């Protein structure tokens, strides 16, 4: 298989505090292997779009219907690559992340999507320890049991598969959207969760909402999507 073209898509709502670091790390650490970088400005009222356009080669597009899945769908419509890689605006891409994605898709034709875990650059060592425990005792086993797992701010998926799926489910507001993606993509091939495909991100939601509560809410919505094909929670809060 020839090397795929990677479209990096960053969905952003009022991310002026984080978007510059996200873009800078993405440009510096991707070794020129990104086909394009798209920032989907999801009805921001701050300088998110203005800051994004300061980076050479970055394309900023507007999605004026607020909502994460709507922003993701906008990215799908705008992207021209073979593989669409989605990261959050508060992430900082590490060296080798793009190369790992290219390698996985190039060497494994049955893969339709790959994803990996988070580490938190603004949380204490103790918080990160308990987060790692959560990954190992719950997330990894669930992946092996059900055969699919996607983390919304750290995944890549074949564009043709997304199109066959009918795109993203824009009726989902926030919680459960990543499991929805994984569950539907799994019908078309292998959805691989890779422990080494780590993405540093902000722990602001964990810090403000609480680690235990956040883990519980995400867990409930995972099982709700798996068994009932819909999320359990429709209300969410933006942490900015």
- Specify the overall morphology: globular
What CATH architecture do you see? Alpha-Beta Complex
Taken together, the total number of domains comes to 1
| Integer-rounded radius of gyration | 17 Å
Strand content: 15-25%
The parts where pLDDT drops under 50 for at least 5 residues are: none
Helix fraction bin? 40-55%
- Structural category is alpha/beta
Précis, in short:
The protein has 240 residues and is of the alpha/beta class. The protein has helices spanning 19-29, 48-52, 68-78, 97-107, 125-146, 159-165, 177-185, 204-209, 211-228; strands at 6-12, 34-41, 58-62, 83-88, 111-115, 118-120, 154-158, 190-193, 199-201. Helices cover 42% and strands 19% of the residues.
Give your account of this protein's structure.
The chain has 240 residues and is of the alpha/beta class. The chain has one domain (6-228): Spore Coat Polysaccharide Biosynthesis Protein SpsA, Chain A (Alpha-Beta Complex), CATH 3.90.550.10. It is 42% helix and 19% strand. The protein has nine helices and nine strands. A seven-stranded mixed β-sheet has the order 3-2-1-4-7-5-8, sandwiched between helices. A two-stranded parallel sheet has the order 6-9. Strand 1, helix 1 (19-29) and strand 2 (34-41) form a beta-alpha-beta unit.
């Amino acid at each position: 298989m020839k090397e795929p073209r990677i479209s990096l898509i960053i969905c952003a709502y009022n991310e002026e505090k984080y978007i510059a670091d996200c873009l800078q790390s993405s440009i510096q650490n991707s070794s020129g292997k990104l086909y394009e970088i798209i920032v989907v400005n999801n009805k921001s009222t701050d300088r998110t779009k203005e800051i994004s356009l300061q980076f050479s080669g970055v394309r900023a597009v507007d999605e004026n219907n607020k909502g994460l899945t709507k922003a993701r769908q906008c990215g799908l419509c705008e992207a021209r690559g073979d593989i669409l890689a989605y990261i959050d605006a508060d992430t900082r891409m590490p060296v080798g992340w793009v190369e790992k994605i290219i390698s996985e898709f190039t060497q494994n034709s049955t893969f339709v999507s790959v994803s990996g875990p988070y580490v938190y650059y603004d949380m204490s060592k103790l918080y990160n320890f308990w987060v790692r425990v959560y990954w190992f005792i719950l997330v990894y086993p669930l992946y092996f049991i059900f055969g699919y797992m996607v983390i919304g701010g750290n995944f890549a998926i074949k564009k043709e598969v997304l199109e066959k799926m009918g795109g993203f489910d824009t009726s989902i507001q926030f919680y459960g959207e990543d499991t929805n993606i994984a569950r539907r993509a799994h019908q078309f091939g292998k959805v691989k969760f890779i422990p080494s495909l780590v993405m540093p991100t902000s722990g602001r939601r964990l810090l403000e909402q609480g680690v235990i509560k956040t883990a519980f809410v995400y867990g409930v919505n995972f099982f709700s999507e798996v068994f009932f094909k819909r999320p359990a929670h429709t209300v969410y809060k933006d942490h900015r």
